[in-house]
Amino acid sequence: MIISHIIGGLGNQMFQYAAGRALAIAHQQPLLLDIADFADYPLHQGFELTRVFNGAISTASKAEIQNVLGWQANKRIKTRLTYPHWAILRNRHFIVEPHFNYWAGIQQLPSSAYLFGYWQSERYFQAIAELIRTDFAFKQPFSEKNADLAQQISQVNAVSIHVRRGDYVQNPAANAVHGLCSLAYYQAAVLAMSQRVEQPTFFVFSDDIEWVKANLPLSSCQYISHNQGIDSYNDMRLMSLCQHHIIANSSFSWWGAWLNPSPTKIVIAPKKWFAIDNNISDLLPQEWISL
Questions:
Q1: pLDDT at 179
Q2: What's the whole-model pTM score?
Q3: SS3 letters across the chain
């Protein structure tokens, strides 16, 4: 079997699932998800995949994890073995992502494997892209307010703009890793999109909508901030319905853009994704525009 370790916010969970799903299909094995670390995880909305999406998503039991990892399934041992200096002790089924950019070694893995990492590249699951979109079909019907917005989106040249601040501003650790997209980035992205799309209407999604209103005035736009807490995923859903996208340095809006299946969509993404030095050469699909 293939087991994917799942942690982080919804966007991270989706990458971890998608990489595992592709590997499981390649080996004709079932995919199970290890969600045990959410038991003491205080951030975001906890494990969301089964609540949000229609896919037949299954979680792994302790026995199933032990079947793959053996004695290394112990939580303390498993955590220590994820560090590079302990790599020599990992059994061959315990696969820790070696770097942020695409790792071709995933193609040579055994048919029984435990994946630990973030796996943030379309290249891991590009071969089954349509299946991933099917798995990530949203489960719940829209609320009346979101249904009205979806109708508005369908009637114009809709461009989603995601401005993520929240934890990137308030959490020093998150800020040190991710940093913030600059106002100059959003201004340049709006200009570039306006030059490519006739009469765009911008749908702005943010956890700090007042900051956006004060700093990024737009002539034709809708500001959306009512999807909060366990309903936050509806912002991703509405983003995916837009024709074009300006995303933040956030896996959440990455997926909002990717779930739009249109071959003619324009996606503008920040060239600087992290405040730290990470190789992001495989993070953005080739046809997306970096600014």
A1: 65
A2: 0.94
A3: CEEEECCCCHHHHHHHHHHHHHHHHHCCCCEEEECHHHHHCCCCCCCCHHHHECCCCCECCHHHHHHHHHHHHCHHHHHHHCCHHHHHHCCCCEEECCCCCCCHHHHHCCCCEEEECCCCCHHHCHHHHHHHHHHCCECCCCCHHHHHHHHHHHCCEEEEEEECCHHHHHCHHHHHHHCCCCHHHHHHHHHHHHHHCCCEEEEEEECCHHHHHHHCCCCCEEEECCCCHHHCHHHHHHHHHCCEEECCCCHHHHHHHHCCCCCCCCEEECCCCCCCCCCCCCCCCCCCEEC
